[in-house]
Amino acid sequence: MLWALLMLLTPFRNESATLKTYLDNAAGFFVTCFLLVNYPHFMASYKLAYGMGLRFIFRNWLQLLLVPLLLVGLIVHAFFYADLPAFWTNLLGESLSIIGIDTSFQAVADTHSKESMAVLLVLMYLTVGWHYSKQAYGCMMVYSHYDGYHLDRWQRRFVKWSLFSVWFANYFTYHRGYTPSDFYGIAQYPLNFTTYGTYFGYGSFAVTLVALLYFIIFKNYRAHKRLPSANFLIPYVSLVVWWLPPFNQPFFYMTAVPFFHSLQYLPFVYRFESRQMPAHYSSMRRNIRSATIIAALIITGWLSFNLVPERLDLSFNTIGIMNVWYFTAASHIFINIHHYFIDNVIWRFNNPNIRKYLLT
Predict the structure, then answer these.
(1) What is the pLDDT of residues 26-44, one digit of tens each?
(2) Model confidence pTM above 0.85
(3) What does the alpha-carbon distance between residue 43 and residue 302 come to, in Å, rounded to a whole number?
(4) 340 closest CA partner among 42, 38, 37, 34
(5) Is residue 353 part of a domain?
(6) Interatomic CA distance for residues 128 and 134, integer angstroms
(7) Quick check: 233 and 12 in contact, CB under 8 A?
């Protein structure tokens, strides 16, 4: 509903001072809510994953131990060897040119620290798109379970790949041209995919959408006289309208989309956490524990994304020496990338904790 309202009003943004103020304030509102919604959603994934016990952690050692160590090691190494000339991006640019992708990576930075962050930024946005699609898929599968809307293995695959196709179209469309964007002082260059990548993205979306309509909605209705619920459909529709390039709104792309993604995540965390509370807890005790968890998620998120990295940047004068908010950028990159790997092991239907506290 908000997407429709913003889509209607945004074209007239510069024709009305009042409307421009409202829309500017709306974008600022989403950014302010990062503290209350986006950051806690990241911190909640850490609480869930590392709170499932040592056996769970060591069973998923790749995602929960090795990946964060590698990321920290790369970030620290790049910081201490910041004066080294760039070499990653030259190698990456040459490697991509071999397969016919001409990029501007060679111009991304003149130092090792900046180029390391630039390469990690590419990885971050790659995993973010995958993660958004997988979360929408997870929401649809949970609601199909709640609603008793049965999907067989192939139908689930059609849903998943239709959601992935939105990511493909978004990713290939974004990586066109050579104009860089800025991320806390780090230049982020598009990979400049050919138009064939864009055709692939939109083509896969069209094919999988038709497959979803026919093999799921039509066939299920013909067999069982049942249509999917709104709860089942909304995650799909919302990903399409906020993320598919013809529909997304650049003015709200980097603010509203992450906000709603995080907001979509938290009810599942709430259900998971609330159902772990002992049955003998009084209502007051439950409320106190819930409030404590919420406050802890907000505070740790603020510390992780804002206070600690910004103080490190000021202490080491990274802005003056490197012209980059190095630790601030690094914290965002690290948490975003690692968050994908964490969720990859938490929200699995074969996870006994998920089956016990979320699906029953």
Answers:
(1) 888 999 999 999 999 999 9
(2) yes
(3) 10
(4) 42
(5) yes
(6) 10
(7) no
In a domain, 83, yes or no: yes
Rg, C-alpha atoms of the chain: 22
The residue segments making up the domain with residue 193 are 47-357
The token duo for 77 is 């190494």
Mean pLDDT of 251-260: 89
Distance (Å, whole) CA 226 – CA 218: 9
| Selection from 359, 344, 288, 292 nearest residue 146 by Cα | 359
Asked if residue 13 belongs to a domain, the reply is: no
All residues at 6 or more sequence positions from 157 whose CB lies less than 8 Å from its CB, including other chains: none
For residue 15, CA distances in Å to 9, 248, 324 come to: 10, 21, 36
| DSSP 3-state of 356 | helix
Q: Let me know if residue 202 belongs to a domain.
A: yes
Amino acid 171 reads Y
Closest CA to 345 of 74, 134, 75: 134
Q: Domain total for the chain?
A: 1
* DSSP three-state, residue 187: strand
CA neighbor of 79 nearest in space, from 321, 289, 341: 321
Give 83's DSSP letter: T
- Confidence bin at 345 (pLDDT 50/70/90): very high
Question: What's the confidence (pLDDT) of residue 177?
Answer: 65
Residue 332 confidence (pLDDT) = 95
Task: Return mean pLDDT, the chain.
Answer: 89
Q: Report whether pLDDT(175) > 70.
A: yes
Tokens found for residue 170: 């978004």
pLDDT at 160 over 80: yes
In the chain, the amino acid numbered 247 is: F
Task: Give 198's pLDDT tier (boundaries 50, 70, 90).
Answer: confident
Instruction: Please give the structure tokens belonging to residue 143.
Output: 């609601």
Measured CA distances, 77 to 13, 85, 90, 115 (Å):
45, 14, 18, 12
Residue 120 · residue 333 · CB < 8 Å: yes
- pLDDT the model gives residue 278: 85
